[in-house]
Amino acid sequence: MTTNRIAFQGEPGAYSHEACRKARPDMEPLPCRTFEDVIEAVRSHDADLAMLPVENSTYGRVADIHHLLPESGLHIVDEAFVRVHISLLAVPGTRLEEVREAMSHTVLLGQCRGFLRRHGIHPVTGADTAGSAKDVAQRGIASLAALAAPLAGEIYGLDRLADKIEDRQNNTTRFLIMSCDPDFSRRSERMLTSFVFRVRNIPAALYKAMGGFATNGVNMTKLESYMVDGVFTATQFYADIEGHPEDANVRLAMDELSYFTSSLNVLGVYPADPLRETQRQGEPN
């Protein structure tokens, strides 16, 4: 049984909500309080898919996500790149010069410091982006604005006093779309495979494990490490590579990797978002 719902973390109007509308416009977005709630919504079949942010081009990786993915029991079936356009939102009738404070998630506040400084607006930390827009709408104070997606202004009836005020015009967030069931059947010109692994306790294990990707011509687009269970000696690695596990060169590289690892878990195989190639070529988006 399907629900035709896709779960995301945050209030309606969040960037994750925008990602849902962009990547799965035919599905009903389901807001959830935490990332854990998003995962549980899919596991309990309250939603078919989960939309989870993993990294931002300005801020870096999203905290906790890499810890949650391996234990979630879900599988990556797609990725979605969403340009983070930030708008200054205020109660109807407000003029820009009336705004003294702007509320948003601390991450978003850090992405438009230049605009805030130029206009003498003091940043105020809120719980999240869409939640800040909702709060501003409820308070109805002209001097307090919110920094959020234009979608949040539309939902909460706020005026957009300024658009695209982010400091970096290529500001982009990468999301992963996850499902209870894996899908290895699809093929496109550019496929990605994501996996986590732990290396064996032998000298130069990581160096040797990575060697198979170099010798077999497999491009690794991401390799990140993080501690497991708060123990400095227990390190797990998250990796993205180009290609499908059934490709001959990928199969050989993964076989070599498995020899030097104590655990290896493929999280998903999925097509690359077209925006990935656009960004690689340095084209505007």
Automatic annotation (TrEMBL):
<keyword id="KW-0456">Lyase</keyword>
<dbReference type="InterPro" id="IPR018528">
    <property type="entry name" value="Preph_deHydtase_CS"/>
</dbReference>
<comment type="pathway">
    <text>Amino-acid biosynthesis; L-phenylalanine biosynthesis; phenylpyruvate from prephenate: step 1/1.</text>
</comment>
<dbReference type="InterPro" id="IPR001086">
    <property type="entry name" value="Preph_deHydtase"/>
</dbReference>
<feature type="domain" description="ACT">
    <location>
        <begin position="194"/>
        <end position="271"/>
    </location>
</feature>
<dbReference type="GO" id="GO:0004664">
    <property type="term" value="F:prephenate dehydratase activity"/>
</dbReference>
<dbReference type="Pfam" id="PF00800">
    <property type="entry name" value="PDT"/>
</dbReference>
<keyword id="KW-0028">Amino-acid biosynthesis</keyword>
<dbReference type="InterPro" id="IPR002912">
    <property type="entry name" value="ACT_dom"/>
</dbReference>
<dbReference type="InterPro" id="IPR045865">
    <property type="entry name" value="ACT-like_dom_sf"/>
</dbReference>
<keyword id="KW-0584">Phenylalanine biosynthesis</keyword>
<feature type="domain" description="Prephenate dehydratase">
    <location>
        <begin position="5"/>
        <end position="180"/>
    </location>
</feature>
<keyword id="KW-0057">Aromatic amino acid biosynthesis</keyword>
<protein>
    <recommendedName>
        <fullName>prephenate dehydratase</fullName>
        <ecNumber>4.2.1.51</ecNumber>
    </recommendedName>
</protein>
<dbReference type="InterPro" id="IPR008242">
    <property type="entry name" value="Chor_mutase/pphenate_deHydtase"/>
</dbReference>
